[in-house]
Amino acid sequence: MTEQPQARGAQKKREILLVPHTTRSGNIAAAARAAELITGAGISLRILEQNDMRPVVEHPSLASLETVPHTAEAAKGCELVLVLGGDGTFLRAADLAHAQDIPVLGINLGHVGFLAEGEAESLDLAIGRVIDKTYRVEERMTIDSTVFDDEGNIIDTGWALNEVSVENLNRRGVLDAILEVDERPVSSFGCDGVLISTPTGSTAYAFSAGGPVMWPSLDAILVVPNNAHTLFAKPLVVSPNSMVAVESRPTTSPAMVVMDGFRPIAMPPGSRTEVVRGKRAVKWVRLDDSTFTDRLVQKFRLPVSGWRGPATPK
Predict the structure, then answer these.
(1) Which of 132, 180, 194, 308 sits most deeply, having the most CB atoms within 10 A of its CB?
(2) Domain extents in the chain
(3) Is 192 assigned a catalytic role?
(4) What's the sign of the alpha-carbon dihedral 209, 82, 276, 214?
(5) Distance between CA 161 and CA 282 in Å, rounded?
(6) Given 87, 95, 176, 192, the catalytic residue
(7) Average pLDDT over residues 224-243
């Protein structure tokens, strides 16, 4: 059947994908409030399936919503992905937004919530901005990863907003790895793994492993050896146009390449992981003009008492 052209002046139906973290009653209340505001404005809402759907199906404001599984098609046709939870929930939701090249907005219901744009107390305001479309979108750099076996055949590919983590699977020994940048060897060492991060991910796993904080406006790739047994294992900041590779020796332990903490690819002994700048950025919803510096101070509770600021001319 041939699809009929859309009538002149008709507007596309608006729809949003809601991705909540539903393990706490307060989170369910927030999801219900978001659903009431969005559907009350005439916008359709679908909700991502959870491991335990009982809190959703038992709530009168959520039970009637269409549910969709976590697949690349989950947000198809939606204008935005709305996340209610912490950073882990945000990363899973970003996976769905990235697949459809649509914006993602995070409201923090967790602890630190570094990736979220708003907090629980500002939920109504954030939803209002979504309804009115009075938000702006910025792009965040991603990285793409390809894993090859010892004969150069592709095992699998993936992408990450935060980091690609090469992780040793043998906790009784070390992973014998060789680090390479732009097809030239840098160093070989035994380690627990190697982290290859975006600026966005520099405040996450890479930071815990000793890497520096990078402002998200910076285009660069961060490389952080994780518990390396060598005298030279300092973090490296390389060009966004560089290719970073990690090879494992044929006689070493099996490893795993994990994107953003939940998309794994097996890395057998003798295999190779290549990481480059991602082909597609993540579209990140911004609700205000607060700076990354302010977010850093607030989320990490950094001491700034005594700050005077720049002198103003008299």
Answers:
(1) 194
(2) 15-140, 143-277
(3) no
(4) negative
(5) 7
(6) 87
(7) 93
Question: Hey, what's the torsion of the CAs at 63, 86, 117, 43, to 10 degrees?
Answer: -10
Residue type, 231: L
HSE-CB of 10 using CA atoms within 13 angstroms? 7
Q: What is the mean pLDDT of the chain?
A: 92
| Residue 64 CA: distances (Å) to CA of 20, 130, 186 | 16, 21, 56
Per-residue model confidence as pLDDT tens digits over 138-148: 999 999 999 99
Tokens, residue 49 = 């399936």
Q: What is the pLDDT of residues 26-69, one digit of tens each?
A: 789 999 999 999 999 999 999 999 888 888 888 988 999 999 99
Distance from C-alpha of 79 to C-alpha of 16, rounded to nearest angstrom:
6
143-277 classified as CATH 2.130.10.10: no
Whether the CB-CB separation of 273 and 256 falls below 8 Å is answered with: no
For residue 132, give the DSSP letter: H
Contacts of 263 (CB under 8 A, 6+ apart): 95, 158, 160
Q: What pLDDT score does 1 carry?
A: 40
Residues 6+ apart with CB under 8 A from 134: none
Name the fold adopted by 15-140: Rossmann fold (3.40.50)
Residue 152: how many CB atoms within 10 A of its CB? 8
Cβ(212)–Cβ(222) below 8 Å: yes
Residue 193 burial (CB count, 10 A): 24
Place of tokens 């903490």: 261
Q: Are 160 and 142 in contact (CB under 8 A)?
A: yes
pLDDT band at 314 (very low <50, low <70, confident <90, very high): low
Look up the pTM and report it: 0.91
Write the pLDDT tens digit of every residue in 107-127.
998 777 889 888 889 999 999
Poorest-pLDDT segment among 5-14, 154-163, 259-268: 5-14
